[in-house]
Design goal:
Belongs to the dihydroorotate dehydrogenase family. Type 2 subfamily. GO terms for molecular function: dihydroorotate dehydrogenase (quinone) activity. It is an enzyme of class 1 (oxidoreductase). The protein has a single domain, classed as TIM Barrel (Alpha-Beta Barrel). 39% of the residues lie in helices and 16% in strands. It has helices at residues 2-10, 15-30, 35-43, 76-79, 125-132, 155-166, 191-206, 224-237, 271-284, 300-309, 318-323, 326-339; strands at residues 52-54, 57-59, 63-65, 86-92, 105-108, 113-116, 140-144, 172-176, 214-218, 241-244, 264-267, 291-294, 313-316. It has an 8-stranded parallel β-barrel with strand order 3-4-7-8-9-10-12-13, surrounded by 4 helices. Strands 5-6-11 form a 3-stranded antiparallel β-sheet. Helix 6 (155-166) runs parallel beside helix 7, helix 8 (224-237) crosses helix 9 and helix 10 crosses helix 12.
């Protein structure tokens, strides 16, 4: 029904407007008695085979929603009814910011992809915290970044502000230095500034009564040498894992008319490369840290490929948009079938 009726209608309209319309629709539908139960019956699967325990957290299944979909933590309770095992909110910044000028979100339908240059548009971390206080048991990741106007030499302070504000309200943190849509942000992926940033966050983390997992989200465009640096940085800073990968700046093999739009590309064109990065990190590190695999998951087989490559969990974004919520159930069913 989603791919034959709902998606064709939604895809007639501007992607960003449709995103907010869909949010409102899901929120309002979820207020109707019995609808939450209906969503759960249609999409949720509970099975001990699906449960995962990583960095001290218990995930009811390994399929999560990637950051960027619920940037401001407005819909995580409702979205959890579609069967996600965890939901990552953000990217959040210390101060509210509008992001880049519109139009900034583009569908590449013939490529089953999306290009976005949103630019960390969000209402600021404190606004998100007010909503996170209403969490009804959803396992939440907090994806944090820096404000556009903050120069890189002051970036650590922005990440520290977000870390402190979110600490009591998220289950794990994700340090985003890999978005291509904030000027100079990716320079923070270089070994020295990234090591300094993660060490600063770990100082705060280890100063708490009980620390929380910190993960690093990396770009798919890193070279093998840079990926080896990432492995070394994880070991040096003792962070808990890596999310591979963010969107790409590559446009290789695209056929859509709007393929030249600037921004980060997600969806099917990223499937192979993100899996390659996962496999490289897992093999070269001797699987010494957990990996969350994201990028181009449009089918159960795509998810299984990432898990086979070394991912411990997977996340959806563009695949969720193109394939609908049934994709979550299909992945979980395939994991159960493979394990039996």
């Amino acid at each position: 029904m989603y791919k034959t009726i709902i998606r064709p209608v939604l895809f007639l309209f501007d992607p960003e407007k449709v995103h907010y319309f869909t949010f409102s629709l899901i929120r309002n539908l979820s207020k109707i008695p019995g609808v939450k139960r209906l969503f759960k019956s249609l999409y949720q699967i509970e099975n001990p085979i699906l449960e995962r325990e990583l960095f001290g957290l218990k995930f009811k299944n390994p399929v999560g929603l990637a950051a960027g979909f619920d940037k401001d933590a407005k819909l995580f309770n409702e979205l959890s009814n579609f069967g996600f095992g965890f939901i990552e909110i953000g990217t959040l910044t210390p101060r509210p910011q509008p992001g880049n000028p519109k139009k900034r979100l583009f569908r590449l339908r013939s490529d089953s992809a999306i290009i976005n240059r949103m630019g960390f548009n969000n209402g600021g971390v404190e606004e998100a915290v007010t909503r996170l206080k209403k969490n009804k048991g959803v396992l939440i990741g907090g994806n944090i970044g820096k404000n556009k106007i903050t120069p890189n030499e002051n970036a650590i302070k922005d990440y520290e502000i977000c870390f402190e504000a979110l600490f009591n309200y998220v289950d794990y943190f994700v340090v985003n230095v890999s978005s291509p849509n904030t000027p100079n942000l990716r320079a923070l992926q270089d070994k020295e500034p990234l090591t300094n940033l993660l060490k600063a966050l770990q100082v705060l983390n280890f100063g708490k009564a009980e620390s929380k997992p910190i993960l690093l989200k990396i770009a798919p465009d890193l070279t093998d040498e840079q990926l080896m640096d990432i492995i070394d940085i994880v070991k040096t800073t003792k962070i808990d894992g890596v999310i591979a990968t963010n969107t790409t700046i590559s446009r290789k093999g695209l056929t859509s008319a709007n393929k030249s739009e600037t921004g980060g590309l997600s969806g099917k064109p990223l499937t192979k490369r993100s899996t390659e990065v996962i496999r490289f990190l897992a093999e070269k590190s001797n699987k010494s840290f957990p990996i969350i695999g994201v990028g181009g998951i449009h089918s159960a087989n795509d998810a299984l490929d990432k898990l086979d490559a070394g991912a411990d969990l997977v996340q959806l974004y563009t695949g969720f948009v193109y394939e609908g919520p049934k994709l979550i159930k299909n992945i979980n069913k395939a994991i159960i079938k493979k394990a039996q």
